[in-house]
Structures are given as C-alpha cells and as structure tokens.
Amino acid sequence: MWNCRWVRSTAGLLLGAGLVTLPVLYAADLPKLAEVVAASDLAGAANDLLTSIEPKVADTTALKEAGDEVEHKAYVLALIANGIGRAQGDAAWKKNAGQVREVALKLAKTKSAPEASKLVAEMRSLMAGGGSGAADSEKPWADVSPLKHVMKEVQELRRPISKNTRGAGLKSKKDVVARDAALWAFLGYVARHDTGAAKQAKKSQADYEKFADEFIAGSRALSEAARKGDADAVKKAVSRASKACTDCHEVFRPDVTDDF
Ligand code: HEC
User: 20 to 30 A Cα–Cα from 228, which one of 80, 107, 144, 236?
Assistant: First the structure.
C-alpha cells in the first residue's frame, strides 16, 4: 500500500508541475485496481445502486414495471463487490465482498419479488458489516457479468457526468462527478479484461486494451480534476474519456454508429 500511495503522490506532484500526464501510469501493463479506484467511491456507488433498487423489489408489480433494471443494477453491484477488496483504502464491507457478490448475482437472476426483496435486505446487512467473510473474494470478471452490463452502466453514467460538468453545475456537483468518474474508471478496468470483443471483431486484443487504458486514464483525470473543482481540466478529461468510447467502438463495434 505504501508503494501505491507513493506512486499516487509522486504522480500528483509531477502532474501538478505539468511534467507528465496520467497515461504514463498505464503505459503497458494492467494497472492495479488500487491505482484505479478508491474503495470509498465504490462503496458509495454500491449504496446508491442498492437504494435505487429497493422500491423496485417491493412487490410483483414494481418488479415487473422495472423491466430489466433490477437485473442490470444487480450485475453492477456484483462487479463492484468483486473489485472492492482490491480497491484503494477501506470500506465497511470489504471483508464481506465475496458474499455481497454472490447475493447480488442471485438477485440478478431472480424473477420473484419476495425473493428479490429478501436478497436486497441481505445485501444491506452485509454492506453494514454483518457477515462471515466466507465466500471467495474474487472471480474472473467474465464469470461475474457480461460486458454488456459494464457498458450499459458506463452509458448510464454519461448522462449525469455531462449534465454536472456543464456550465456552473460543476461547483455544487464536483463530488458527485468525482465519484461517477471513479466508477467509470473502475468499469473501464473491468472492460479491459474482456477478450470476446477483440475475438469477435478479429482485431488485436492489445489495441482493445489500449483503448480501455485510455478510457481509464481519462476517467481518472476527470475524477481528480472534479475533486479539485478545476473546470478546464474537467472539460479536457471529459473529451478524452468520450474520445476513448468512440475510438474503441469504431474498431470493436463497427456495426454501431455512436451519437456521442
Ligand atoms: C475498450 C473499448 C470500449 C470503450 C473504451 C467503451 N466501449 Fe462501449 N462497448 C464496447 C464493446 C466491445 C461493446 C459491445 C459489448 C457487448 O454487447 O458485448 C460496447 C457496448 C456499448 C453499449 C451497448 C450496451 C448494450 O446495452 O448492449 C453502449 C451504450 C456503450 N458501449 C457505451 C459506451 C460509452 C458511453 C463509452 C465511454 C464513456 C464506452 N462505451 C466506452 C467497447 C468499449
């Protein structure tokens, strides 16, 4: 951990002095998750996701009306749980993360409102620190969720990020943007592990990872700039991250035309 903190603070100093830019950190190898996202940002995002799910599992009608939203959010929760143990810093439920992941995966798959409601309550209690820490703390990302849900969440975060970084909005929303962008970086890290997209497109996995790294770096820069309230740097970082979406899709999703 000292090492990681050293890297961060050194990078911060160099960045402050305008000597290097973030991609240096992600030049070649897979970045460590602890260098990508803080456990507190993941825990905060997970808490909000769970709160947004709660009313949707209240009864059968609510669950039906929610369509695939509960399933989607449950997959994102499972991904967060799979990563939080290796994220930087502490969170109340780090030791129970494996259990949270398993409950989230059950939630993603159930169609029964009473069961979903029970699983949500179980997750709440695990996230409050209850639980035995028994389940495996990590699984391969592809075994947790399809890339589709990773991207769907990346897309859902785009709306609040663009809204809250426009004009005077940033001032009151900088912490929200900082956390949303931290979640972007995390989802970029998860996406980077995918090997199916490159295979399907018959293109280079190394190129795919380069785009993912660029997206992680742009999102990290955005998170840091937002936390500082640096509007110019925020604008640049949003463009950088958005360009990574388009660039990656151009090669790895040529069938889809982006409108962003
Ligand atoms: C490293 C490459 C890469 C980056 C970066 C990337 N994407 Fe994607 N995206 C993909 C691939 C590959 C798919 C197809 C996933 C699948 O369905 O298997 C996809 C799918 C999607 C989808 C369709 C999801 C669905 O419901 O089927 C959306 C929306 C999307 N991306 C938005 C974004 C946005 C917005 C960004 C940036 C903020 C972004 N992507 C960044 C590779 C990328």
Answer: 80
Ligand 1 atom with the smallest distance to the CA of 192 is 1
pLDDT tens for 74-130 read 999 999 999 999 999 999 999 999 999 999 999 999 999 999 999 999 999 999 988
Residues in Cβ contact with 212 at an 8 Å cutoff, skipping those fewer than 6 apart? 188, 189, 191, 192, 244, 248
Q: Identify the residue whose tokens are 């911060």.
A: 12
Question: In which residue are the tokens 């490159």 written?
Answer: 198
> Which of 44, 110, 113, 39 is CA-nearest to residue 74?
110
Cα(134) to centroid(ligand 1), Å: 34
* CA distances from residue 147 to 50, 67, 189 in whole angstroms, order as listed: 21, 19, 11
User: Which residue do the tokens 């929303």 mark?
Assistant: 173
Q: What pLDDT digit, counting tens, does each position of 107-123 carry?
A: 999 999 999 999 999 99
Mean pLDDT of 227-253: 96
**Can you read off the two tokens belonging to residue 156?**
């859902």
What integer pLDDT is reported at residue 135 of this predicted model? 65
Nearest of 86, 85, 116, 90 to residue 103 by alpha carbon: 116
Amino acid, single-letter form, for residue 96? N
Rg (CA), the chain: 18
| 249 CA from centroid of ligand 1 (Å) | 7
Write the residue with the smallest CA distance to atom 40 of ligand 1. Answer: 245
Q: Which of 88, 64, 49 is nearest to 223 (CA)?
A: 88
CA dihedral 166, 153, 26, 100 (to 10 degrees): 130
